[in-house]
Every structure is written in structure tokens, then in C-alpha cells.
Design goal:
The protein has about 290 residues and is mostly helical. The protein contains twelve helices and no strands. About 80% of the residues lie in helices and about 0% in strands.
């Protein structure tokens, strides 16, 4: 049993909220937990614990959405094949690169994806091997290095025009594969260490409480507005994390580093204002929420 200092209590609050969001919209546990937890922990300690939790969470989500698998498995199959070499390469990078630079890569990749989602970026993408294989390869690298894959997967499936049950099933199918294979790769690389195991004392109760609660609450509120508010929170904390890591790896002086966070907040506030304006004008959310949850 780990000692519950300030960092651990901070992680408790973070994971409870992240599990709540995951239960509500189908993803978000790692994309909300990782940016904040990286303030106190490195990816090498954090990732193995998150992957173990996500194996079980993703299997649960897949079982709940089994009806949609038949309609969507052909679309996600190229992505699943592309995942395998990407995860192996990402796992090797995790053991080889300096932790500060891994944090920097995590934040700089995730922030633009969040802001693109917040902007409602939509481009029709045909489900094909030409798209699926390279996307899966890049997704595998991203997930095994950061344990984050929800934002790029959501963008792909939204732009492929998947309806609600197909979106959830496709997301769960890919995430079961990526978390299971990543857990195996981590085991082969010897990344499961005692420090990672101690984080499970926080993650397990948070998931058991947060996911059912999120599933219950989302039935009573507008899912798109909730998802959009969570996205703003995510953008702000990623901006803060990126500013912190720029100081940590001596790329930017401390005073100027926080201009990155300020820019992320300003951009997101503009996008949030436009979203709320559309919502009020048309009396409902912009329609994209039907595909994103």
C-alpha cells in the first residue's frame, strides 16, 4: 500500500474525474489522467498502470457495445493490423528516450488534436487500407508511448460518418486491441515495476466508482455539451503541462513558457464561444455529438 501524499491525493481526484468522463462518453480516462499525472510521474511509471486498467475498462465497453461490432469490424481491421508494429516501436522508444522529451512529445501531439476536435474539424475519410494501415501504425506508436488514443480515434470515426453505436463499438474494438498488445509489449520490455503497481491502488477504486456514475449521469444531460466542456478542461491542462515541460527540458525561459498555456486557453475559449453560440442559435448542439459518443 503506497503512502498517500499530496501527489497521490491529486492523482485520486484526477482519476475519479477521468473515469467519470470515460463512463459518460466512452473514452477519456488516459487523455485526462496522463496530462495531469505527468506533473508528478514519468511515462515509464504511469503508462504500465494505465494500460492494465484500460485492458479491463475497454473489454467492459466492448461487451456493452457488442451489437455494433458486426457493422464496423471491417472498417477498423486495417487499423488493428497497423497497430502491431507501431506499438512495438513505441514501446522501444519509451525505454530509450529521456522522460522529459517523452512528456514534451505527449503534450505537443495531443494539444493540436484536442483543438481540432474542439473546432469541429470534419473531412470525409473513406474507410480503406490506404488510410487504416498508416493511421494504425501512428496510433500504435502514440498509444504505447503516451497511452492516449481517444482524440485521434474520435476524429477518424467522426469523419468516416459512423453513427452512435458503430462509433462506440469501433472505439472499443481498437482500444481493446491496443491496450492488450501494449500490455504484452510492456511485459516483454520489463516495464512493469513496483512504482507502477502502487498506482493501481488509486486507479482501481476510481474506475469502479467513476465509470458507472458517468454512464448514469450522461443520460440526464446533453452529451455534446458535456463532452465539449471536458475537452476544454483537457486543452487547458495539456497547455499547462506543455508549459511546465518546456521549462523542465530548458527549451524556454519560465516566464515565456506559460505563454503556451495562455495561447491554448485563448484559442479554446474562442472555440467554446463559437460552439455555445451555435448551440443557442439552433436550440441544440451542433449535431456532431451524435457521432462522438
Amino acid at each position: 500500500m503506497p503512502e498517500f501524499g499530496a501527489a497521490m491525493w491529486f492523482l485520486v481526484a484526477t482519476t475519479c474525474f477521468a473515469a467519470f468522463v470515460n463512463g459518460a462518453i466512452g473514452y477519456g480516462f488516459s487523455s485526462l489522467t496522463v496530462p495531469l499525472a505527468l506533473i508528478f510521474y514519468t511515462n515509464r511509471i504511469l503508462n504500465p498502470a494505465i494500460v492494465i486498467i484500460e485492458v479491463f475498462v475497454n473489454v467492459y465497453v466492448l461487451l456493452v457495445n457488442l451489437k455494433g461490432v458486426r457493422a464496423v469490424w471491417r472498417r477498423v481491421f486495417p487499423v488493428l493490423l497497423g497497430l502491431l508494429p507501431g506499438i512495438a516501436l513505441g514501446g522501444y522508444a519509451l525505454t530509450s528516450l529521456q522522460p522529459g522529451w517523452i512528456k514534451f512529445a505527449t503534450y505537443t501531439i495531443i494539444l493540436p488534436l484536442i483543438l481540432l476536435q474542439a473546432a469541429g474539424w470534419r473531412r470525409p475519410i473513406e474507410a480503406s487500407w490506404l488510410v487504416g494501415l498508416p493511421f494504425g501504425w501512428m496510433l500504435g506508436i502514440l498509444y504505447s508511448v503516451t497511452t492516449i488514443s481517444g482524440p485521434p480515434l474520435a476524429m477518424l470515426f467522426n469523419n468516416q460518418g459512423l453513427v452512435k453505436h458503430e462509433f462506440r463499438a469501433g472505439l472499443a474494438l481498437v482500444r481493446v486491441a491496443e491496450s492488450s498488445v501494449t500490455a504484452f509489449v510492456y511485459y516483454q520490455l520489463g516495464l512493469f515495476i513496483s512504482e507502477s503497481g502502487s498506482l493501481l491502488y488509486v486507479f482501481i477504486p476510481s474506475v469502479m466508482l467513476g465509470i458507472p456514475l458517468g454512464s448514469y449521469v450522461i443520460r440526464r444531460i446533453d452529451p455534446e455539451i458535456f463532452r465539449r466542456i471536458c475537452m476544454s478542461f483537457d486543452a487547458w491542462i495539456v497547455g499547462f503541462g506543455l508549459s511546465r515541460v518546456l521549462i523542465e527540458i530548458d527549451l524556454v525561459q519560465s516566464a515565456w513558457a506559460y505563454s503556451v498555456m495562455a495561447a491554448a486557453i485563448l484559442i479554446d475559449l474562442c472555440l467554446l464561444y463559437l460552439f455555445l453560440l451555435r448551440t443557442v442559435r439552433f436550440g441544440q448542439s451542433d449535431g456532431l455529438g451524435e457521432l462522438r459518443i
